[in-house]
Design a protein that fits this description.
Elements: E1 20-24, E2 29-35, E3 42-46, H1 60-63, E4 68-72, H2 89-104, E5 108-113, H3 115-126, E6 132-138, H4 160-170, H5 179-189, H6 192-201, H7 220-223, H8 228-235, H9 244-249, E7 255-259, E8 262-264, E9 271-273, H10 277-289, E10 294-298, H11 306-309, H12 311-326
Parallel strand pairs: 3-4, 3-5, 5-6, 6-7, 7-10
Antiparallel strand pairs: 1-2, 2-4, 8-9
């Protein structure tokens, strides 16, 4: 298994609106971008699976009016180090603890989406004392990213088939790279309820060329993503040491949980969306019983990545939450 740095994949990348920087965390070199004045409160943005830091570009100018913003690439994504066999929630989380220490250096608000939302929850529970002011969990797959969750659908009954298909046809570290085969197999390997509703959960890139189609090749975010991530989640190795009930019982900071588009197929019980209503409710119950404050905002018509597709609405939700902290 070969560790891959950004320099090993230099032809993959394209320029973006903000300058990119790198910090050496020991095992990984973490890529990140910064916006806003250093005198403003610190904010750490954590992307979801298959998303690089620049997925936050639509929201960063709005956030930079209020925060000193740091948006990162997690290991295995973007320009950060790819670490075969080392994709676990605990490793991702400890990378972020080191990043806060070495780069931000003060108490910070954290906001993560999807798998990044799970990491925002992880930091809410397990970060060092004084690191986390409060946390935004943007549509996280609580319970539904586990193979044997305490409640509701597992990853196999949710987004898992998509991750499995990416890994099967693209391979760990893009060792296969059969994009045409993936596109051909997708309708057969992805359950019908997911195919029907996937565009509502994950809309097309608003900046993509409307004349381009699947035959034109993978989108930029997938080019920068190690598909071993998907295998790690589907197999359960990514989440094996991070039980969600245990994690939620350890939350000690104020939390905003946003919940976006979701649909449960009546015939199969399959979930399209990050988490079901029952899973979101149970998460709130556990955090509340642990003595932490959790605010729940329901956005049933919002796509999974609100920060990318509805940036103004996302920033307003964050600012409304921060205002309650100040009070």
């Amino acid at each position: 298994m070969t560790i891959l740095e950004a320099a090993d994949r230099a032809a993959t990348f394209v320029p973006h609106a903000y300058p990119e920087q790198t910090v050496d965390l020991g095992e990984v070199r973490m890529n990140y971008a910064v916006a806003g004045d250093p005198s403003l409160p610190a904010l750490l943005l954590i992307p979801g699976q298959s998303e690089s830091w620049w997925g936050y570009e639509p929201a960063m100018p709005l956030l930079a009016e209020h925060f000193h913003v740091h948006a990162v690439d997690l290991r295995g994504q973007g320009r950060s180090t790819w670490t075969p066999g080392r994709y676990t929630i605990d490793n991702f989380g400890n990378d972020l603890v080191r990043f806060i220490d070495l780069v931000i250096g003060r108490e910070t608000l954290v906001s993560g989406m999807s798998s990044g939302g799970i990491l925002s929850a992880w930091l809410s529970a397990y970060a060092k004392p004084g690191q986390i002011r409060a946390a935004v969990w943007e549509d996280p797959p609580l319970f539904s990213s586990q193979t044997t969750p305490a409640i509701g659908q597992s990853i196999h009954q949710a987004i898992g088939p998509v991750f499995a298909a990416w890994n099967k046809w693209l391979g760990d570290q893009w060792s296969i790279g059969d994009w045409t085969g993936l596109m051909r197999a997708f309708p057969a390997e992805i359950p019908v309820p997911m195919l029907v509703h996937l565009a509502a959960m994950i809309p097309p890139d608003p900046d993509a060329d409307p004349a381009a189609g699947p035959a034109d090749g993978p989108p930029q975010n997938l080019r920068e993503y190690d598909p071993e991530w998907g295998r790690a989640f589907v197999s359960g190795t990514a989440t094996a040491s991070c039980d969600h009930v245990t994690m939620l019982e350890q939350v000690r900071v104020p939390v905003l949980l946003t919940h976006h588009f979701r649909s449960v197929d009546a015939a199969t019980g399959r979930l399209v969306g990050a988490s079901s209503d029952d899973q979101a409710r149970r998460a709130r119950e556990i955090v509340t019983a642990a003595g932490a404050r959790i605010e729940y905002r329901d956005f049933p018509d919002a796509p999974h990545s609100m920060h990318e597709h509805l940036p103004k609405q996302y920033v307003e939700a964050v600012l409304d939450f921060v205002a309650t902290l100040d009070r």
